[in-house]
Amino acid sequence: MKKQWWKEKVVYQIYPKSFKDSNGDGIGDLKGILEKLPYLKNLGIDMVWLSPVYQSPFIDQGYDISDYYKISEVFGTMEDFDTLLAEAKKLGIGIVMDLVINHCSSEHEWFQKALKDPYGEYAGYFYFEKGKDGNPPSNYRSYFGGSAWEKVPGTDLYYLHMFAKEQPDLNWENPKVKKELFDMINWWLDKGIAGFRIDAIINIKKDVNFPSYEPDGPDGMCACTAMVERVDGIGELLGELKRETFAKRDTFTVGEVFNLKEGALEEFVGENGYFSSMFDFAPHMLTEGQNGWYDTREVTFLEWKKTIIQSQMECQGKAFLSNIIENHDEPRGASRYLPEYAQNPDGIKMLGCVSVLLRGIPFIYQGQEIGMTNCQMDSIEDYDDIDTYHQYREAREAGLSDKEALEACYRFSRDNARTPMQWDAGENAGFTKGTPWLRVNENYRMVNVADQEKDPGSVLHFYRKLIALRKSEEWKNVFVYGEFLPLFEEDESLFAYARTDGEKKAVILANFGKEEMTVKFSENLGKVLLANMYRPQQINAREVVLEPCEVLVCQVCE
Ligand code: TEU
Ligand code: CA
Predict the structure, then answer these.
(1) Which fold has domain 9-103+175-203+253-460?
(2) Ligand 1 atom, smallest distance to 163 CA
(3) Helix (H, G, I), strand (E, B) or coil at 132
């Protein structure tokens, strides 16, 4: 595949509220991020994706934007942003902004104007629709529970919100809306940002007839994704979006795409796709049950591994996916994908290694590089996430006790990944001098950056070596552009694959099992490139014994 600058990058996701607080108000901010740039540089990071830092009432933690041209005062000023951008650039780090354009905040001036004049120009920026026989226009359930339609006060109209009612959906059929959004995107690109992570983008195309569908739950509603999955024509919108903005420069874009239609991969992220890349959510979707967090499915190691392999094979030679083990919406990978006996530094390194060396762009979520884990809360009041409240309520309504519902939240709450970054063993994990907006995970005394800096055997040091290997002159071509070859696919505890550029070849072997295992090859295992347990520099054999939780990356020769 064509060599492109962004294919060689390693990206770090920052959740600004929880990264580093510089002024003691308990909330992370831009100056805090600025302070930690050298840390990111040291880790080997090339691009930083900032979850939203725009002006927002924070109903959905900034994914409800009330002014796309302003920085939230919680995070600082536009001057702080410009400084961050410039300083990052000096270190060779690009800034990727979060682009939330399916919806805005109900406090955005467009929506406020629409409410004042529900039949006027600004109502046309949204979907203001007549109800049917005293009911909403259709039976869609929003992502955060309840109807996706909310009454426009003083009228018989409803407005559409696929997410919270404070997040009205923007009308992409209206050319004025598109123009406003494209201008805004270009304004940010003019500043010199590296690109965008594009939020919930699959939702922008609506079937404007808003047909009701077969209910999929006792509430008589159906998930609003029923419409998203059936409607055609998103391609025209995304093509236009690209043409009017990203294509004019060499912008990096990564789409948050769920519910992609079969066969649409290349159209979306092929060589001439709408986006540079999109996240591979396939392994994360596996746990999804019918009714939310309280009835998720058990997923076996084999199923999880095969799903990743399948994604890898599907995009081979066609596209570059972005690989994650966690993000701000997902539980911590260390708590989710490792069996209990592997939830230790060795296991965490193993998981990181198999993820970062996959074909595609590695995204590392803040705290992943030190092995942060899910956080147990004592009560639902300890949480600060709209989706967690909704999932907790659902669980209680389904008859679960408070304890059981909290257990489900402990496994799947979005706040698991949103607890403050653990910088040191001091008060509040060194995140803030004030009171943190969300509880710090108790394990910060054991799991924190400062201690790991001092320990060459730590998860943090391993991640540095891992990223350095991927980017090294010697191996870059293999790990970035090389082919992905699955190995021992049916094995129930070994995760193994090879990467090769036709000249050099490396294998990644990871023992997710409880017992040691012997792995036999037809080729010779040579130079050890990376290991999480003791290994000599060369193996020089056709077989190797792996301890439980051991990962080994080594060169193979004929
Ligand atoms: O998430 C979009 C999304 O599709 C949701 O289903 C998401 O997976 C959610 O976590 C369900 O539990 C994006 C953002 O990543 C998320 O943080 C926002 O809340 C959402 O869009 C609305 O902007
Ligand atoms: Ca602050």
Answers:
(1) TIM Barrel (3.20.20)
(2) 22
(3) strand
